[in-house]
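Input (structure):
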């Protein structure tokens, strides 16, 4: 893959893609690409079938049969749990969850669902919220006790914020864009036409819950009205509209579409200049950090998205049959959100413990810091997923890179590999490796 060496240089504009399930994915495909995808998918399917056949063959007699009650749809989605590879061993903490299992809080104007440490005990550092707003729907003015990183999955939205110096910020964001609101900074999100938006929110605290956010309406209706009136410099009668606010605040609610962005910006800057901080980032506008025929990786952290001081991310596209190479992360746990496609991951957890789990769109995965793993595309379309970290910068260690940097004799003493095998191992941290040779 080709590394991007100057993240500060503005990259050429690219159209967003891959954020909703699509056969094209982020990179698209020409005739050669389609041929590669087809052959890769065949190799991947054959390898998986051979792996499972070997597992079954290794079982004595009827040991692996399961004639009792089964959740067939779940078993179909997670075949490596029911018939794991022979390399799986011992007991590994559950590192799979799914937004599709989470309760949806549906209100007029949109909905939200979340996965945090309560539902997913291994996820101590990060919590995730998936939210949808209809056109005009508002996630009301609020703030958090955690930093908020977000990616737009579909549609468009208007976001507002107030910076550290009291200056306003407003911007329209599209599918593929990010935003970041540090702890305590107030902000809002409103869905735009024609169909609103859906996005993923990531918080740098595994205990975070959407139910505990500070809402402007909830706060003010639970403050004595004479106090609020005094603060606003108006009479108590001016606060009569508070009677229509639900006792728990608005949270998500419907509203007319906002005026043009320029009109909102003019109104917001009537008293204060626009913030010099850009709280948004065009993920699909940046050149991939690594890219070749097997996929791409876009790394976004505090080095190229300055305000994102506590969360680092990688947006990964893996072609059919290809694989995010064997690696680990030295500085933070990895929280994953699977956007489209399907794949599997084996997590090695020391003491001979390893487990393989399959993943599908809307699933959430987790790999604790320093535990090695990979992500293999086991489907027939591009696999697109996020790697998220509670860290200012993205870091990883590549097994291939490490082996190539060691004395060959030392490696051979450990693993018994031949000179030919050592010569074939990629020498760099490619990020994504091609389909296997069988």
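Output (sequence):
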């Amino acid at each position: 893959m080709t590394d991007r060496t100057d993240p500060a240089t503005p990259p050429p504009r690219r159209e967003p893609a891959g954020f909703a399930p699509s056969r094209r994915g982020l990179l698209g495909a020409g005739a050669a690409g389609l041929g590669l995808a087809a052959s890769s998918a065949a190799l991947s399917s054959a390898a998986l079938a051979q792996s499972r056949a070997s597992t079954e063959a290794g079982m004595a007699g009827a040991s692996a049969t399961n004639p009792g009650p089964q959740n067939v749809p779940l078993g179909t989605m997670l075949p490596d749990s029911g018939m794991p590879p022979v390399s799986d061993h011992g007991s590994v903490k559950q590192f799979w969850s799914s937004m599709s299992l989470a309760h949806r809080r549906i209100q007029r104007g949109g909905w939200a669902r979340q996965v945090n440490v309560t539902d997913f005990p291994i996820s101590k550092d990060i919590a995730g919220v998936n939210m949808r707003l209809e056109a005009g729907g508002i996630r009301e003015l609020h703030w958090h006790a955690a930093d908020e990183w977000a990616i737009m999955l579909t549609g468009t939205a208007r976001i507002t914020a107030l910076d550290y110096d009291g200056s306003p910020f407003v911007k329209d964001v599209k599918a593929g864009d990010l935003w970041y609101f540090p702890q305590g900074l107030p902000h809002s999100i409103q869905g735009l036409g024609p169909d609103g938006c859906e996005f993923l929110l990531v918080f740098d605290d595994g205990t975070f819950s959407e139910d505990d956010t500070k809402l402007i309406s909830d706060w003010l209706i639970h403050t004595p009205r004479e106090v609020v009136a005094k603060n606003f410099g108006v009479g108590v009668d001016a606060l009569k509209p508070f009677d229509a606010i639900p006792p728990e605040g608005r949270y998500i609610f419907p509203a007319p579409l906002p005026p043009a962005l320029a009109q909102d910006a003019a109104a917001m800057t009537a008293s204060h200049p626009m913030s010099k901080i850009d709280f948004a980032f065009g993920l699909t506008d940046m050149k991939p950090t690594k890219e070749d025929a097997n996929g791409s990786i876009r790394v976004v952290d505090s080095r190229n998205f300055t305000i994102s001081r506590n969360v680092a991310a990688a947006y990964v596209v893996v072609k059919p049959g290809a694989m995010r190479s064997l690696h680990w992360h030295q500085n933070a746990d990895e929280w994953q959100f699977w956007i489209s496609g399907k794949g599997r991951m084996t997590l090695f957890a020391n003491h001979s413990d390893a487990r393989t789990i399959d993943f599908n769109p809307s699933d959430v995965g987790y790999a604790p810091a320093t535990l090695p793993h990979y992500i293999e595309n086991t489907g027939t379309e591009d696999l697109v997923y996020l790697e998220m970290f509670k860290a200012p910068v993205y870091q990883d260690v590549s097994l291939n890179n490490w082996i190539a940097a060691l004395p060959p004799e030392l490696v051979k003493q450990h693993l018994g590999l031949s000179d030919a095998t050592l010569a074939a191992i990629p020498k760099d941290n490619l990020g994504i490796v091609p389909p296997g040779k069988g």
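Notes: The CA atoms of residues 67 and 82 lie 13 Å apart. The first helix runs from residue 31 to 58.
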